[in-house]
Amino acid sequence: MTVRVELTDRFHEAAAQWADERVMTEAAALESKAEQAVLEIEHLVTGAHEVEFEIEDGVLVYEPSDDLAAFLEEQAETAGIEPETVLALHVDLFAGAFLSEDSTGPDDPGVTADFDPNPNPGGR
Question: Which regions of 19-79 does DSSP assign to beta strands (E)?
Fold first, then answer.
């Protein structure tokens, strides 16, 4: 199943912010943000660490793994929408991930000195 997802204005705005923060072109940032989103989604469902996709005129073209395709179809059936719409919603959800305003640092009140981002390093 090949899925085509039109990237939203919200996604394009997040990519523009990513470009500004990383001093890169907007096209490179759009690809980077799309990779982040698709990889996070695929990883959450299947544990994958790599994805391949294309962006054609503002449209993400992706061939999900069999497990992700089944997951999208199940969610689509439950919601009464198309699998492409399910993936589009998930991709848009991840648009703002990893932007500076979403990150925490040691000066943030919710972060303690003994914070360990990888509490189980031997368990991976």
Answer: 53-56, 59-62
Q: Is 9 left (phi over 0), alpha (psi -120 to 50) or beta?
A: alpha
Q: Taking the complete model, does pTM exceed 0.85, yes or no?
A: no
CB of 95 closer than 8 Å to CB of 8: yes
Flag whether 113 is in a domain.
Answer: no
pLDDT tens profile 10-47: 999 999 999 999 999 999 999 999 999 999 999 999 99
Q: Is residue 107 part of a domain?
A: no
d(C-alpha 61, C-alpha 7), whole Å: 10
Alpha-carbon distance values, 63 to 25, 55, 66, 113 (Å): 26, 12, 9, 42
Contact 2, 72 (CB under 8 A): no
Assess if residue 78 is contained within a domain.
Answer: yes
CB 91 within 8 A of CB 33: no
Q: Answer whether residue 111 is part of any domain.
A: no
Q: How far apart are CA 59 and CA 6, in angstroms?
A: 4
